[in-house]
Write a sequence for this structure.
């Protein structure tokens, strides 16, 4: 016996989809909003009912503006699948979906994204997104005459707005207090969070100038001291997802940095990142604006530290084992590791030792000084076990799953610590490579772009809005190594620098510290932000 297909109006279908989304795809939001409240109190039930009615009415009003009879099913299908996908990641990893997270998603390469698309995710999206989306095509949609349809649609939109406001009025004080105390809660409400983030990104991106189009430091020039200096090879290693807490040099209980310790590097032990994602931190750390004067549009459209070095006549090269330089190296020489001749990368991406492939030949043909940036894949999750070779599997048992929920927290930490151990090995190799150079004075500065959550407070990965992000996502490791020749040529007291390395520092210091160490004179240089300046003798 075949079931008769029901006949619905477009507005009724929108209403049913809105109720479903709020009920089935917003568990993390409802838990954050009501999980700590006493359900024996009438006020809790009143607030829950008011939010449910108000948000449903708001969704109906919004969809009523854009959904016609021939577009409503595709539109709702997209919202259902999006809501299911977001609810999975918000629930599993404790992420907040805001504009910054949207930009992370849009910038993610397939090699990174597929690690997040495990069987659990596919099953969840199938059950909670694709199946309900397919059911949208079951009912027939009833037609109305044009004028009547327009009048009824207008009534639904106005009615939705009125109901959304009216439902919230009796509990407004309670609701407003809750949102003031936890402003980030709105980033849990799906799929409204995705729609708002997309509109914000579209609005802010319209009319924006191309990346690195506004010159910075065009007055840059090399100081007269360069007349007595040999060429300098300075390497900036940008780490990925390394958190300061798990660095052995910073006092971690495990010795995750034995090779760096043997090479006498200088660890800066209190360093704060500019953001909690690569999309934010990478452009910010190479910018003259930094976190102190943070302006996303200015950072995106103004030249970076590397362009200032170029203005001064110092060649730069960006070598990437990640998802690009996010505009930092716009118009400058770039080498992608997986495209270098002779480099074979496994499915999980190239190991970071590939950043050294063919580098000696590259230097042999270089003229004068060079600033080299190595952008690591580092500790990028959730598949930490793919980031290191068998030789770095010291901490066991380690999580070897793409889905972290299949592992215990101890196994996750073991896998993550193995990535730090491998980063330590890579940095050791870079230092040895630099120490062997006879033609250059050499130095290295390593700093991670952001940290990582490994299950603390139910959070995993990174990207939590900066205002509420835990320190493990904001505190990053940073180490410096200087050859004796470079310390001498720059008149730098290494022991002084070592003594000052425990003072607070941040990504904001990178721009000015590199300019200072390279003896680049420019109006955009701030001596007070140069970590090396207090330990350098006056010229």
């Amino acid at each position: 016996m075949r079931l008769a297909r029901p006949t619905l109006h477009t507005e009724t279908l929108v209403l049913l989809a809105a109720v479903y989304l709020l009920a089935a795809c917003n568990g993390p939001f409802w838990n954050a909003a009501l999980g700590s409240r006493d359900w024996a109190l009438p006020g809790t039930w009143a607030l829950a009912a008011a939010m449910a009615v108000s948000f449903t009415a708001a969704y109906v009003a919004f969809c009523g503006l854009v959904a016609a009879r021939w577009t409503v099913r595709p539109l709702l299908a997209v919202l259902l699948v999006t809501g299911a996908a977001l609810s999975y990641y918000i629930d599993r990893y404790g992420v907040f979906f805001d504009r910054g997270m949207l930009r992370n998603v849009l910038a993610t390469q397939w090699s990174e994204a597929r690690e997040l698309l495990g069987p659990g995710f596919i099953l969840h999206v199938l059950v909670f997104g694709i199946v309900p989306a397919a059911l949208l095509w079951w009912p027939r949609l009833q037609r109305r005459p044009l004028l009547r349809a327009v009048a009824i649609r207008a009534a639904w939109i106005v009615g939705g707005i009125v109901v959304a406001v009216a439902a919230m009025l009796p509990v407004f004080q309670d609701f407003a207090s809750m949102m003031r105390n936890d402003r980030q809660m709105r980033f849990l409400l799906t799929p409204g969070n995705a729609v708002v983030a997309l509109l914000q990104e579209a609005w802010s991106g319209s009319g924006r100038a191309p990346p690195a189009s506004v010159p910075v430091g065009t007055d840059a020039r090399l100081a007269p001291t360069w007349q007595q200096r040999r060429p300098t090879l300075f390497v900036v290693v940008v780490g990925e997802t390394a958190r300061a807490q798990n660095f052995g040099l910073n006092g971690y209980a495990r010795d995750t940095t034995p090779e760096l310790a043997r090479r006498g590097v200088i660890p800066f032990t209190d360093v704060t990142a500019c953001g909690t994602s690569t999309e934010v931190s990478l452009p910010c750390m190479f910018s003259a604006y930094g976190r102190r004067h943070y302006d996303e549009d200015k950072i995106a459209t103004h030249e970076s530290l590397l362009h200032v070095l170029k203005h001064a006549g110092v060649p730069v090269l960006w070598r990437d084992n990640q998802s690009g330089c996010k505009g930092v190296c716009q118009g400058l020489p770039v080498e992608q590791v997986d495209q270098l001749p002779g480099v074979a990368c496994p499915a999980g991406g190239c190991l970071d030792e590939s950043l050294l492939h063919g580098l000696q030949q590259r230097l042999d043909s270089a003229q004068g000084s060079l600033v080299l940036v190595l952008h690591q894949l580092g500790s990028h999750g959730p598949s930490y076990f793919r980031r290191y070779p068998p030789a770095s599997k010291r901490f066991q048992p380690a999580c070897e799953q793409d889905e972290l929920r299949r592992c215990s927290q101890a196994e996750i930490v073991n896998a993550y610590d193995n990535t730090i151990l491998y980063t330590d090995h890579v940095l050791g190799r870079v230092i040895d490579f630099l120490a062997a150079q006879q033609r250059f004075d050499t130095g290295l500065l390593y700093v991670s772009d952001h940290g990582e959550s490994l299950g603390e407070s139910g959070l995993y990965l990174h990207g939590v809005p900066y205002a509420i992000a835990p320190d493990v996502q904001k505190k990053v490791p940073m180490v410096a190594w200087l050859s004796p020749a470079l310390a001498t040529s720059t008149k730098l007291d290494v022991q002084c620098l070592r003594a000052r390395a425990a003072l607070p520092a941040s990504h904001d210091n990178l721009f000015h510290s590199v300019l200072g160490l390279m003896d680049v004179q420019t109006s955009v240089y701030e001596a007070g932000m140069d970590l090396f300046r207090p330990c350098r003798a006056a010229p």
In short: The chain has two domains: 7-205, 221-535.
